[in-house]
Design brief:
By secondary structure, the chain is α+β, with helices and mostly antiparallel strands. The chain is 48% helix and 16% strand. It is elongated.
Length: 346
C-alpha cells in the first residue's frame, strides 16, 4: 500500500509495527515478522535512513521509535507526486513529438473526416473541453450539428479562463434568441465581433487543432461531414483567415441595464484612419484618379480598397457604400447604436 512512498512490503510491515508499539528493537521484529536477526536490523536501519524511525540514545540493544506518519511519509509522497507530474509532462511531450513525426510521414494523420451530426457535436465539445488557452470561432447563420444555445461548454471554459474570440455572421444575430445568447456570452467574458458574411464555419482550439465542415450548408439528404485538422500548414492558413476577418470585424458590446440591455455593434472601430480618409474623399465625390494622387497610391489600389470596403459592409454599389458610411458614423465621429433588445421585448 505504501509502495508510492518508496517502501518495500517488508519495510511497510516493519513501520506499521513501530507505529503500533511506538518503540521496538530487532528482536521484536524477529518475533512479530518472522525474519532473521540480520534482516530485522537491516529493516530498522532502512527505516531510520528514510526518516521513518529514530534510534533511542544509549539503549542496548538499540531501540527504534517510529516517526509520526504525517512527518515521515508526507515529504516522501510529495516528492513522488512531483516525480509523477514530471513523468506525465515528459510523456505528453513525447506523445506530441510522436504525433508530429507521424504527421510528417503520413499526411493522412493531418485530417480526420468526422461523419454525422452526433459525431460532429461531440468533436465540438471535445475541442472546447481540451482547450487550455483559447478558442477561435466562425459562427454562420443556421447550424449543422449544435445550436448556439446548446453550447454549455463555452461558459464552463470561460469560467476556467479560456479565451473565446467569436466572429458572428450578421444573419445569425437576427435568428430568434441569438442576441440574448451572444449577450450572455459577452457578459461571461467572450470577445465577440460581427461581419456581413463568413466564408465557412470553423472552430480552432489553441491554434493546434480545428474543426471545419467539408461541404456547403445546403441541407442535403446525406449526413454532414467535417474535417478535424491537426497542426499543419492547412491549420495555419485557417488561423490566418480568422485573424484577417477579426481585424476588420465590428466589435460587439453591451449597453444599458436589465430589460434595456442591448447589443451594440461598434462600427467605427472596424475602419482604419487611412480608410476613413479614403471614404471622406469618396463621399466628397473625388475621382479615383484624384484620390490616388492624394493618397500617393495607384488608381487600381484605390479601386481595390473601395471594393474591399464594399464587401465589408455588404454594399453592391458605391452609393450603397456611401449610405453605409453615413449610417455607421465612420466620418462623423459617432457610432450608430444598432440596438437589438435582449429584455422582455426581444
Amino acid at each position: 500500500m505504501l509502495e508510492a512512498a518508496n517502501l518495500s512490503r517488508l519495510e511497510e510491515r516493519a513501520y506499521r509495527l513501530l507505529v503500533s508499539v511506538l518503540e521496538a528493537e530487532p528482536a521484536d521484529l524477529v518475533r512479530e515478522l518472522a525474519v532473521s536477526a540480520v534482516e530485522a536490523a537491516g529493516l530498522l536501519e532502512s527505516l531510520r535512513a528514510k526518516g521513518l524511525a529514530s534510534v533511542q540514545d544509549h539503549a542496548d540493544p538499540p531501540r527504534y521509535a517510529a516517526t509520526p506518519p504525517d512527518v515521515g511519509l508526507g515529504p516522501m509522497l510529495l516528492s513522488t507526486l512531483e516525480s509523477v507530474e514530471q513523468a506525465r509532462r515528459a510523456v505528453s511531450d513525447l506523445a506530441d513529438e510522436y504525433r508530429s513525426s507521424i504527421r510528417r510521414r503520413d499526411a493522412g494523420h493531418l485530417v480526420e473526416v468526422i461523419v454525422g451530426r452526433p459525431a460532429i457535436r461531440q468533436q465540438i465539445r471535445n475541442l472546447q473541453l481540451g482547450a487550455r488557452k483559447e478558442l477561435l470561432w466562425f459562427c454562420r447563420s443556421g447550424h449543422v450539428a449544435m445550436p448556439s444555445d446548446d453550447n454549455a461548454e463555452e461558459f464552463e471554459m470561460l469560467a476556467r479562463g479560456v479565451r473565446y474570440q467569436v466572429i458572428y455572421e450578421r444573419a445569425l444575430l437576427e435568428e430568434p434568441g441569438m442576441i440574448r445568447n451572444v449577450a450572455e456570452g459577452i457578459c461571461k467574458g467572450e470577445q465577440a465581433r460581427a461581419v456581413p458574411r463568413l466564408p465557412v464555419r470553423m472552430a480552432i482550439a489553441d491554434r493546434n487543432v480545428g474543426l471545419c465542415p467539408l461541404v456547403t450548408d445546403r441541407g442535403g439528404p446525406g449526413e454532414p461531414t467535417a474535417a478535424l485538422i491537426r497542426d499543419s500548414h492547412l491549420l495555419t492558413a485557417l488561423v490566418a483567415l480568422f485573424e484577417s476577418y477579426w481585424s476588420s470585424a465590428s466589435p460587439l458590446h453591451l449597453s444599458g441595464r436589465g430589460d434595456e440591455t442591448a447589443l451594440v455593434e461598434d462600427h467605427r472601430q472596424s475602419v482604419s484612419s487611412d480608410d476613413r480618409y479614403l471614404l471622406s474623399l469618396l463621399v466628397a465625390g473625388v475621382s479615383d484618379k484624384a484620390m490616388a494622387t492624394q493618397l500617393k497610391v495607384s488608381q487600381r489600389t484605390v479601386q481595390r480598397r473601395i471594393r474591399d470596403l464594399m464587401d465589408r459592409v455588404g454594399a453592391d454599389s458605391r452609393t450603397q457604400l456611401a449610405w453605409q458610411v453615413a449610417s455607421r458614423g465612420w466620418l462623423s465621429g459617432t457610432v450608430r447604436d444598432s440596438r437589438v433588445p435582449t429584455g422582455r421585448d426581444a
